[in-house]
Amino acid sequence: MSIKIAIQGIESSFHHLAVQKLFPNNNVTLMPCDSFNKVTGTIANLSADFGVIAIENSIAGSILPNYTLIDRENLQILDEVFLNIDMYLMALEGETLHTINEIHSHPVALQQCKDYLMRVQPHCKIVEGKDTASEAKKIRDGNLKGVAAIAGKQVAERYGLQILDSHLQSIKVDKTRFVVLGRSTEASPIAANKASLKFILDHEVGSLSNVLQLLQTFKINLTKIQSLPIPEKPWQYAFFVDVLFEDRTFFSEVITILKKTVEELKVLGIYKQNLENTPSNLAKHIVHGE
Ligand SMILES: O=C(O)C(=O)C[C@]1(C(=O)O)C=C[C@@H](O)C=C1
């Protein structure tokens, strides 16, 4: 039995690499989607067991629409993984840096390489595509002359393109955080030490500061805070935070207090921090029915 995992993009994209890191020993059926929207929809309508989506890149920043998608579809963050990203310029055999006049890639990938594009290829037309790998495949399938794609090295190998330039990202160390999404309402892992929360505050002086102080009191470490506008309420914001906790009881107490004090609270996931990129245990539930 295989696990069905929806990703944005096709085989060899960075999302595919993230799935391979998370589920290296499992029989995975990849469900390629051409937008993040379709990934979350595919999980919500039960077609996929899980989905993997990028949530933040160290150079390009948060992929903001993905926060809204997780929230809107009522999905749970079940796991995470961090990929080192290295960007390459690739095109058909025989092309050189001087014959290229158009460059395609995923918008977040283009953003990571914007210094390179301005410095080395300022004359090129930049085209935002669906994902790194499908843009490269398009060049191969359509025999597109004068067109290059920005993608990972594995994409050049998979789709038979020639590498014209390497390490294009603006900062050498380039990392993307991906999260595994599911519909699961099952108990979070016993070893969980991280949570993603969304809260909305009333417009009182100090309401955000009170929440931060509460976290401090209970020794809960805030690792990320992101505000997003609430479209129905102009100039009001929802806060999306990631927190690390050592003591599960303290964490539960904080949740109880927050529920009473903030206007709205939603737990988007309780999982184990995974800086070491340990393979996920989630497949067990699907394959063995545990
Ligand atoms: O197009 C791809 O290969 C992707 O997996 C998408 C994506 C992203 O959404 O951030 C993934 C990792 C990199 O940061 C660049 C692009």
CA gyration radius, whole angstroms = 21 Å
CATH superfamily of the largest domain: Periplasmic binding protein-like II
The SSE string, one letter per element, is: EHEHEEHEEEHHEHEHEEEHEEHEH
**What is the CA–CA distance across the termini?**
14 Å
CATH topology of the largest domain: D-Maltodextrin-Binding Protein, domain 2
Topology, number of strands: 15
Regions with pLDDT < 50 over 5+ consecutive residues?
A: none
Report the average pLDDT across residues.
Answer: 94
> What portion of residues is helical?
25-40%
Strand content: 25-35%
GO molecular function, one term: prephenate dehydratase activity
GO biological process, one term: L-phenylalanine biosynthetic process
Organism: Aequorivita flava
InterPro entries: ACT-like_dom_sf, ACT_dom, Chor_mutase/pphenate_deHydtase, Preph_deHydtase
Summarize the structure.
With 290 residues, the chain is of the alpha/beta class. The protein is built from 10 helices and 15 strands. Strands 1, 2, 3, 4, 5 and 11 form a 6-stranded mixed beta sheet that branches.
